[in-house]
Amino acid sequence: MSLKNRIVVTGMGAVTPLGNDVNTLWDNILKGKSGIGRISAFDPSELPVQIAGEVKDFDPEAYMSKKLAKEMDRFMQFAYASCDEAMKDAGLVSDEEGKYSIPNTRIGIVFGSVFSGTDEIETTQDALSTGKATRVGPRFITKMIGNIAAAQIAINKGLMGPSITVSTACSSGLDAINVGAMLIETDKADAVICVGAEAANTPLVIKGLSAIHALSRRNDDPEAASRPFDVSRDGFVMSEGSGTVIIEKEESARKRNASFHAELIGYANGTDGYHVTSPDPDGKGAIEVMSQAISEAGIMPFDVDYINAHGTSTPKGDVIEVDAIKKLFKEHSRELAVSSTKGALGHLMGAGGVVETIICVKAVEDGMLPPTINLKEPDEAFGLDFVPNVSRKEDIKVAMCNAFGFGGQNAAVIVRKI
Q1: Which residue ranges of the chain lie beneath pLDDT 50?
Q2: Mutual orientation of helices 118-130 and 203-211 as an angle, nearest 10°?
Q3: CA 25, CA 207: separation in Å to the nearest integer?
Q4: Are 194 and 246 in contact (CB under 8 A)?
Q5: pLDDT at 5
Q6: Of 216, 284, 372, 415, most Cβ neighbours within 10 A?
Q7: What is the largest CA-CA distance in the chain?
Q8: Which helix (H) or strand (E) holds 344?
Q9: pLDDT for 294
Q10: Residue 368, phi then psi, degrees to nearest 5
Q11: Residues 269, 372, 305, CA angle at the centre, nearest 5°?
């Protein structure tokens, strides 16, 4: 089985704790840098967790007007900025008359986020509760609603194709790509802008995740706090940012002489049907989506060279994912490379799947394996090549990206070198 339409990646954009464009992000990933630090957006001293991945030196007015920036929550600004980079990268820009080389009714947008405008909600409620404010501003509703991120892109870029917003926990970003591919497969669009964005490093969210023991508490060592697959891992690190991947019918891209980064050959979504926070201990859902994506790609498990794992650095989650990889890939699991870039970036939540797909695309483009940093003492039970601490040169033809989330949400995407 294979996709009906050949789908190619023509544009990419990123706003992350390791850089506000794709090239800077990729360079810092390969150098093994960390984007994690003590929270600076507010005083975190009363919180049990005081560390996060924060976007640095971000000026929204570099991407949009001052008026538009005021109309958008921070997660929307990230989304708009990463989309702007991706559209320029894809050559998907309108002419002086506002016309695109593809009809604007055939350009879709799929947006993914977990928390959407949580920051706006929390800030507004705090102002009301403390007496700092007595009224709610006129922009409140449109800054908190998740779909307005996609709407602002469509309105300001003059797009009229399908617009869908998905929220599937930490799979949201990858599912934005999945849904985008479905739109192309069903001929609802020729090109789809797939965006994931998050800006939820807020006291309420951090307290909530701390209450379920999901977060690392290494407040005294932020850069080493996220340590996927390490024996001393103690939870993930919250992060913020955005990623955009533009996928397109090959026929459409060729007509407008667009360049290709990679080919999207397989995708899948599924659910464990097991628990609201814990993944199935046997990894059944993870195995199923990886298997479906491989089948759809028309390849065999041994054709996969690299997996960008979900790898959040939680004691249970990493074990279950590694076990699922071993069960599906069998002997090949010891030959393929598996790394988690969450060691460097933290967990970008709804943006994670898109940003990590970008990393997979760069891996096949440049023939470089991104490392799992902070892997000082690998869990002996794992026995896989986690590309520890240092990137390395390797010919990568096929790369898979995994994303798993609360509610048993599972997603996988496969890209191939062109």
Answers
A1: none
A2: 110
A3: 29
A4: yes
A5: 82
A6: 415
A7: 64
A8: helix 342-345
A9: 98
A10: -130, 135
A11: 55
The residue to which tokens 């096949």 are assigned: 364
Judge contact between 218 and 280, C-beta under 8 A: no
Does pTM top 0.90 for this prediction?
yes
Q: Which of 83, 194, 261, 347 is catalytic?
A: 347
Q: What are phi and psi of 343, to 5 degrees?
A: -60, -35
Token readout for 177 is 């790509």
Q: For residue 332, indicate whether it is catalytic.
A: no
Distance (Å, whole) CA 319 – CA 328: 14
Angle at 117 between CA 115 and CA 118, to 5 degrees: 65
Kindly name the residue from 194, 261, 310, 360 that is annotated as catalytic: 310
DSSP labels, 358-415: HHHHHHHHHTEEPPBTT-SSB-TTT-SB--BSS-EE---SEEEEEEEETTTEEEEEEE
Query: How many Cα neighbours within 13 Å face the side chain of 113?
Result: 29
Is residue 347 among the annotated active site residues?
Answer: yes
Active-site residue flag, 310:
yes
pLDDT of 2: 65
d(CA 183, CA 153): 18
**CA-to-CA dists, residue 28 to 23, 151, 239, 350, angstroms:** 9, 32, 16, 21
Q: Residue 212, Cβ neighbours under 10 Å: how many? A: 10
Q: Catalytic one among 170, 194, 360, 401?
A: 170
Strands (E), 3-86: 7-15, 36-38, 51-53
Q: What are phi and psi of 309, to 5 degrees?
A: -75, 160
Give the sign of the dihedral formed by CA 343, CA 25, CA 279, CA 263.
negative
